[in-house]
Specification:
Layout (H helix, E strand, L loop, with lengths): L1 E7 L4 H12 L4 E8 L14 E4 L6 H14 L4 E5 L3 E2 L3 H12 L3 E9 L9 E2 L4 H9 L2 H11 L10 E2 L2 E2 L3 E5 H7 L11 H10 L3 E12 L9 H18 L5 H15 L4
Parallel strand pairs: 1-2, 1-4, 2-3, 6-11
Antiparallel strand pairs: 4-10, 5-11, 6-10, 7-9, 8-11
Length: about 270
């Protein structure tokens, strides 16, 4: 069994309803938490077959998910799914992912293959980033960064095999509760954006963090910080906090983790 958390912020009710309907079609889903960071309550969400929790203010992405994750740990639910509202998939996908986790008890976090609505793949398997990886791709010309981006996103490895990946996207994170009890929840110092890098990295210290391409989902990725100056500023501030925590240029663990990640391909371990 698993619980699910979806963080809302002025989110379209139809989008959320579609996702809740899919989740409710799965026999594996226990409680669905709708964590609303909006300033105004939307009574329509209370009508859905889910637990609606209204915060009245924007606590941030990770902090809001933590409200639900704490409930999962308190009630000893073995798995927790962190998922964006703009995700769509077949309900049987949940069972397939859980079966793989059950068969591989060393996996702490699992992410499926993720596509855009036009069926183009989203390259969301990444190495632990350097400042250049994150700031360069945002502010430098694409042609200067193209090869580095492809390397950072592990594009050369095809996304057609199971991979151990040190940075998995927070848009769909299937998490083992035992792993969260060991490493902690989302770091609430991060309001938005790098909380998935941080959590995957911490989980990886004790468990495998895995990309599983045999199940796929659709993600209508908005890339808000490319469209909003406010979100861009939030993105920058939180990346600074991330590198202040883990190290900007002297991060020996980052070098070791990335080397180990690339070695699995070199040694044909996949």
């Amino acid at each position: 069994m698993l619980n699910v958390s979806i963080v809302l912020y002025h989110t379209n009710i139809r989008e959320v309803t579609a996702l809740v309907d899919v989740l409710r079609d799965s026999t594996h889903v226990n409680t669905i938490f709708l964590i609303d960071n909006s300033e105004t309550k939307n009574p329509d969400f209370e009508l859905l077959p889910a637990t609606y929790l209204f915060n009245g203010k924007n606590l941030g992405y990770g902090a809001a998910h933590n409200i639900a994750i704490r409930q999962t740990l308190t009630h000893h639910t073995p798995y927790h799914l962190v998922v964006n509202s703009d995700i769509y998939f077949q309900s049987e996908s949940i069972g397939q992912l859980l079966d793989f986790m059950e068969d591989h008890q060393d996996i702490g976090s699992l992410m499926p293959k993720i596509f855009y609505p036009d069926e183009k793949i989203q390259y969301l398997c990444k190495l632990i980033p350097t400042p250049l990886d994150l700031f360069g791709r945002r502010f430098l010309p694409r042609k200067w960064m193209q090869k580095r981006i492809e390397h950072f996103e592990l594009q050369q490895f095809g996304y057609d095999k199971i991979m151990d990946v040190p940075y998995l996207s927070g848009c769909f994170m299937l998490l083992r509760s035992e792993a969260l009890e060991k490493v902690g929840l989302f770091d609430e110092r991060f309001f938005m954006y790098p909380e998935d890098i941080d959590l995957t990295r911490r989980v990886r210290e004790y468990y495998r963090t895995v990309f599983y391409p045999h199940v796929s989902v659709i993600h209508n990725h908005a890339q808000g910080s490319y469209k909003s100056k406010k979100l861009l500023w939030i993105h920058i501030i939180n990346l600074i906090r991330y590198f202040n925590k883990w190290g900007w240029f002297c991060d020996k663990k980052r070098q070791l983790i990335n080397k180990e990640t690339l070695n699995q391909f070199k040694n044909n371990k996949l």
